[in-house]
Structures are given as structure tokens and as C-alpha cells.
Amino acid sequence: MADSIDHARDLTPKGRATRDRVVAAAADLMYERGVAATSLQDVQGASRVSGSQMYHYFPDKASLVRAVAVRQGETTLGQQEPWLSRLDSVAGLRAWRDYLVSTMRRRECHGGCRIGTMAGELSDTDPEARAELAGAFSAWTRLIRDGLEAMAGRGQLRPGTDPARLADALLAAAEGGLLLAKCTRDAAVLENALDTVIDRVESLTS
Q1: 67 vs 7, 22, 28, 72, CA distance in Å?
Q2: What pTM was estimated for this model as a whole?
Q3: Tell me: the pLDDT tens digits for 90-120?
Q4: Is 194:100 a contact under the CB 8 Å cutoff?
Q5: d(CA 25, CA 137)
Q6: 154-166 residue pLDDT tens
Q7: Is CB count within 10 Å lower at the N or C end of the chain?
Q8: Domains in the chain, number
Q9: Domain range holding 27?
Q10: Is 46:37 a contact under the CB 8 Å cutoff?
Q11: Is 66 exposed, middle or buried (0-12, 13-18, 19+ CB in 10 A)?
Q12: What CATH number corresponds to the domain at position 111?
């Protein structure tokens, strides 16, 4: 992936804009259809670029998939940034939960998590894409942990509380809940999973 990133940095502003358009189109198609069901020709048509342009930016599908994996992580965390930056209180955790649940209800439980959807398809078959997606999950966990560590630093969590373990549990509840909500078409399972862990955090406040 480093070669692809370095290549992107070497592009002109117009070239970067074109490459970004290709990645954005591919990200939407792969999210909606799946990676396997999305061809380079599909992406070429959706992004309105020529075949030579596609090959210039992405010589094969694997390089495009890795770029999409990076983008899905950036998109997911970017959309949640207003809530992820305020997870240093129980109220902030519940506001984040409200955002996730209301988003799924608004979408009638279609779509799910961009990172998780891609990870479910590629984790066992594409080690490089899996590494990019794992990095996105790590960044997400770190943002949750940062909020909990801020609470601990202010003495708002009982001594001995492990913010890292709670952060893992919160992300697992969110990701598992998003998947189950998508499958069952019921956002209540996501709400219940997050509430259970947030209630546990609240029980540890001093």
C-alpha cells in the first residue's frame, strides 16, 4: 500500500482529484454490491474516466481495493468525528450511541458499517486489505479509549478500571450490533448492545 500512497502524493492536483473520484466511486459500489461483484469496468463507468486513466492510477483491482479500504476507514471515522471527539463522559457515549442507532433506523437497517462490510468479505482472502481495515478498527478503538482515559484521568472511573478493555467492548458492541441490525432489519439489537456496555461504564463511575 505504501507504493500506492507514494504515487498518490506525486500526482498533480488534477491527478489527485481524478484518483479520488475513482476511489470514491469504487468505495460506493463495493459498499453497495460487494468487492467481488464490482469490476474495474464498473468503477471506470461510475467515475467517468478512460481505461488508460484507470490503469494509470490502479494497475490492478487489488491496488484499488486497498485504496478503498483506506477510504472506508477515513469515511467512517470522519462521519462519526463530532461524536467520537466527545466520548469523555457517559453523556457523550450515549450521544454516540444515539447517532449510530438513529442512522441505522433512518437507513431502515440497510448498509451497515463500511469498514465491517468490507472486512467481512476480505479478511480471509486479502491480507493487505485486511491490514488496512484492521488499522481503521484500531484507530476507531483508540478514539473511544481516549475518551475513557480522559474520564479515568479526571478520577471519574473507579481505580483499576481498564479503559482499553472497555473500548474494545464498546467497539465490539457497535460493530456486532451494526451487523445484526443489518441482518435482522432491527436497530434495537444495536441499541441494546451499546446500552449494555455503556451501562457498565456508568456503573464504574465514581
Answers
A1: 12, 10, 13, 9
A2: 0.90
A3: 999 999 999 999 999 999 999 999 999 999 9
A4: yes
A5: 22
A6: 999 999 999 999 9
A7: C
A8: 1
A9: 2-203
A10: no
A11: buried
A12: 1.10.357.10
